[in-house]
Hints:
Elements: E1 2-12, E2 15-26, H1 120-125, E3 134-141, E4 144-151, E5 156-163, E6 171-179, E7 185-192, E8 195-202, E9 208-214, E10 217-220
Antiparallel strand pairs: 1-2, 3-4, 4-5, 5-8, 6-7, 6-9, 9-10
Amino acid sequence: MGEARRLRVAVVGGLLVAGAAGCGLGSGGDGAGADRVTVAPSGAPSGALEPPGVPSGSPHGGAPTEEPDKTGDAGESGPRPKPSKPPKPSTSAEAPKPSPSSGQPQPPTAPGSAANPHTPEQVCDSGGQGTGYKVQRKAAFPGGTVYQLYSAATQLNCAVALKTASVGAKTTVWATLARQSDGKSVTDRGAFSYYAGPVYLAAAGVCVRVSGGTPRGSATTPWSNCG
């Protein structure tokens, strides 16, 4: 009695693999109904037999078939990129502050921070006792300076105390002119914005002196201008 085996053919990794699927008995040595299959290895010469019932070119009969690409449409590979969102404008930067216009009025200058706009000559010349007064001597006191002036045209002495502090604001200041020969003196005292005076004495050839001050202090010149 002969023995025949059934072979199952499959393609694994591109190789044609045959295996026994079962066995059967038949007469005549070949066995009735038994399928004999000759498996041709990869690269076998033409004429190799193929398993019966398997069409040529099928996955079981030769080169493996390629499966269609299921990743997407033709020409596309991988996932489609998502559109990026535009960046949001930053709110951390502060808006520029407007600079004040040069045409806007500026705050007034505080009293006392400006220089005294008057001079001792102007003050004595404007007092109604002639002109041509010239400074002979001076003495500084806290918040001002006292001056002694003389005019050859009028032969008069003049005294004026100009403020150097709290200029433009009314504060107490005073100026005195004294004549040595008889002890006569004349004083101007009050709350003034710029100066105290002018005060005058006729003292041709006679010694005179001036003094001036504020509540913070005073100053006096020596007797002078005697001849």
